[in-house]
Amino acid sequence: MKVILPTVLNPISRRKDKSVKLSLETRELSPQETLTLMSMEGLEMWLCLAPNENELEVPEENAEVDEKSPSDRLRAVLYVWYTQEIKNGTFVGLFDTFRKEKMEKIIWGVKSKLDK
């Protein structure tokens, strides 16, 4: 499914996580165009923007927007673990110290599985 519409890019806002929120306006759409857009809501996709005089090229690989890297995911999970430990009183200190300790245990756990 592909939708190509003339559009105007309106105010752009930056978010805390350094992503960008775009606001686009189209001309009046037909009911079919509106339904097509609504069916695409929430899907990851490529957005190609170019002034009228330029040609567009769509990348062949799949678009991935919300995918966090494995290291970002691990850091987020460690932070939740850290806040729980702080709340329970089982850890006192900074997150950086907690993260380094837990990462070292993870590293040693993986190393212990390596062939000698």
Q: Which bin fits the share of residues in helices? A: 25-40%
Biggest sheet character: 2 strands, antiparallel
Low-confidence stretches: none
Alpha plus pi helix count: 3
What shape does the CA trace take?
elongated
Gyration radius over CA: 23 Å
Would you tell me the overall average pLDDT? 85
The number of E-state strands comes to 4
Question: Helix/strand-derived class?
Answer: mainly alpha
Number of domains: 2
Report how far the terminal alpha carbons are from each other: 52 Å
- Taken as a percent bin, the fraction of beta residues is 5-15%
Cross-sheet strand order for the largest sheet: 1-4
- List the helices and strands in order: EEEEHHH
What does this structure look like?
With 116 residues, the protein is mainly alpha-helical. The protein folds into two domains: 65 residues, no CATH class; 42 residues, no CATH class. 40% of the residues lie in helices and 9% in strands. It has three helices and four strands. The strands form two sheets. The chain has a two-stranded antiparallel ribbon with strand order 1-4. A two-stranded antiparallel ribbon has the order 2-3. Helix 2 packs across helix 3. The longest helix is centred in the C-terminal third of the chain and has 19 residues. 0% of the residues are buried. The model has no long low-confidence stretch (mean pLDDT 85).
